[in-house]
Amino acid sequence: MPRSTVARIDLEALRRNYQTACRRAGGTQVMAVVKADGYGHGIGPVASALDSLVPKFAVACLEEAVAIRESGLEQPVVLLQGVHAGPDLAECAQHDFEPVLHSVQQLDWLENSDQLPACWLKVNSGMNRLGFHPDELAGVMARLEALRASDRLLGFVTHFACADDAESTMTAEQTSVFEQATAPWPGLMRSVGNSAAHFLADQPLYDWSRPGIMLYGGSPMIGKTGPDLGLEPAMSLEAPLISTRVVRSGESVGYGAGWVADRDTRMGMVAIGYGDGYPRHAGTNTPAAINGQRIRLIGRVSMDMLAVDLTGAPEAREGDSVELWGRTVGVDEVAACAGTISYELLTGITARVTRQYR
Ligand SMILES: *Cc1c(COP(=O)(O)O)cnc(C)c1O
């Protein structure tokens, strides 16, 4: 029998979260971002579950787009990071992949490619990771026109640096830079808007929005959980309780002997650790749940197991299933305890953990 350390994936919750994104996007079309193996949920099953709802997918790289085709899906797939080599452009053209062009090198590759895929042009509106500065756009567009690639250009994309912070003025500044930069080409489409932008009042989303984390139920907003925003967790991470004992007052638990019982404490060991992607930075008091009751971690997370305090769950027995995150304990809560964000926890679950779909 395999170990019952599993990530249960609720594909209906995923579909409802996508519909929430569509409602919040108003008349904007919504491409589903399924990069990084569907944020750890499994790109094939995730994309297949969204097939009847989603007009376009987005991923980081070519291999991820190929995985979508291998699942038998036919929607266009945007490559948010574009291609990493010239010959990939022909492959994009053949498979209806839409690379984002963000660098001069990618324009050079386009010049030497005998097949031109439909593309997007990335505008650097202030995040300063990738893309062309607004001053460079006219020159880039002239190059594309000379190539006769301009009729393969679908439109412009940009990405926000601070949309997770509803107090920040930067998103409005980036929006205005983007709007002015793209105004000379009103016939082309525009795409802004990660998940967070769906939760900002009066934020224009133009033709296409690009939600990722919210589809999986994670919060894109500082200080809010997914459920606070009307999102449902798509993943429940569960592992069995494999041992229980009473540690006596004054005894310690685990590596470093960092947690010491201040009274006799019934505790349990759970078969999951950082080798499964559970964050090692989650310390004592990080919440978990057993049989719907909230409990807490004690001591250090090991590679294959972690310790919990069962004081709050006196009925808990070996073999019971512990929820590390899911409907009782939100992934955003665990992320906060580990000093990170739900994105990192969800994408970090390793191949050792079986994904089960319903
Ligand atoms: C990952 C990504 C998204 C989705 O971001 P979320 O915060 O997960 O919604 C959107 N656009 C680009 C360019 C991305 O890289």
Outline the structure in words.
The protein is of the alpha/beta class. It has two domains: 31-221, Alanine racemase (TIM Barrel, Alpha-Beta Barrel); 235-357, Lyase, Ornithine Decarboxylase, Chain A, domain 1 (Beta Barrel). Helix content is 25%, strand content 22%. It has a seven-stranded parallel beta sheet with strand order 3-4-5-6-7-8-9. Strands 11-14-17-16-15-18 form a six-stranded antiparallel β-barrel. A two-stranded parallel ribbon has the order 2-10. The radius of gyration is 23 Å and the shape is elongated. The model has no long low-confidence stretch (mean pLDDT 97). Residues 33, 35, 80, 159, 194-195, 210-213, 220 line the site of pyridoxal-5'-phosphate.
Which band does the percent of strand residues land in? 15-25%
Q: Quote the average pLDDT.
A: 97
Fraction in helix: 25-40%
Order of helices and strands: EHEEHHEHEHEHEHEHEEEEEEEEEEHHE
Strand order of the largest sheet: 3-4-5-6-7-8-9
CATH class of the largest domain: Alpha Beta
User: What small molecules accompany the polymer chains?
Assistant: pyridoxal-5'-phosphate
Number of domains: 2
CATH architecture of the largest domain: Alpha-Beta Barrel
Q: What would you report as the Rg, rounded to the nearest angstrom? A: 23 Å
Shape: elongated
The CATH topology of the largest domain corresponds to: TIM Barrel
For CATH, the homologous superfamily of the largest domain is named as Alanine racemase
Contiguous uncertain segments of 5+ residues: none
Main beta-sheet strand count, sense and barrel state: 7 strands, parallel
EC number: 5.1.1.1
Function: Catalyzes the interconversion of L-alanine and D-alanine. May also act on other amino acids.
Keywords: Isomerase, Pyridoxal phosphate
Binding site for substrate: 129, 303
